[in-house]
Amino acid sequence: MTFEVVQREYAKLRPQLPRFCGCETCRGAGTIAVDMQFLPDVVTTCPDCHGTRYRREVLDACAVGGEVLDEDMALWACDADLAWRARGAGWRCVLAPAAVAYHHHSPSLGHASSAKHLLVGRNRVRLLARNASRRQLRRRLLRIVAYDLLYVGYAGLTERTTAPLTGRIRGLRGWHADRDRAPRDVPLSPPPGLRAALRRNRAYRAGAAR
Predict the structure, then answer these.
(1) Domain boundary among 52, 78, 102
(2) Segment 48-52 mean pLDDT
(3) Rounded CA separation 78/72 (Å)
(4) DSSP states of 119-185 as a string?
(5) Averaged over 77-90, what is the pLDDT?
(6) Per-residue pLDDT tens over the stretch 6-49
(7) Are residues 113 and 94 in the same domain?
(8) What is the domain count for the chain?
(9) Which of 97, 81, 94 is CA-nearest to residue 20?
(10) Same domain, yes or no, for 95 and 115?
């Protein structure tokens, strides 16, 4: 994602979004370009959002126990957790179609490793416990359980691991502790479905094999 693209998209969207969560200083880019006069510009981390791309008001409003990004959810879904909490607090997230982000998939734990399977399983449950409203859980619970059972079975057959199941069990054990507030009902995008998940998994595997 280039700084110029983010700036351009922000300029188009900003007048319509009085509660846009993007940082005002860097316009949601996470970095700022310092003019060095006769030398090339120096790109540095934004001093206000410290690279998070969020406004300070958003981070303060979403902090839980003094923490903005939950260290217990590090490496997977802590960013989704923050974005969901921001939506619940009344802030808006918008799509910038021209922006392109490059993500290095699973550089820390490795795709399909047992450590990642366990972490994803646990944090997936924690994400729902913290942010899904009762209405959303009632409407989607059967589909969520069916998808997760299929995923656990698929991982067991293809990866020979029970880590996805172990992670989800750990998440369920902490369900009541994580569900210490009544989440607001935030509109969600339609689930991509099982076929999309399989296509995504094939793409991940192809990338990891290169």
Answers:
(1) 102
(2) 81
(3) 8
(4) HHHHHHHHHHHHH--HHHHHHHHHHHHHHHHHHHHHHHHHH---HHHHHHHHHHHTHHHH--S----
(5) 87
(6) 555 555 555 554 456 778 788 778 888 888 777 788 899 988 88
(7) no
(8) 2
(9) 94
(10) no
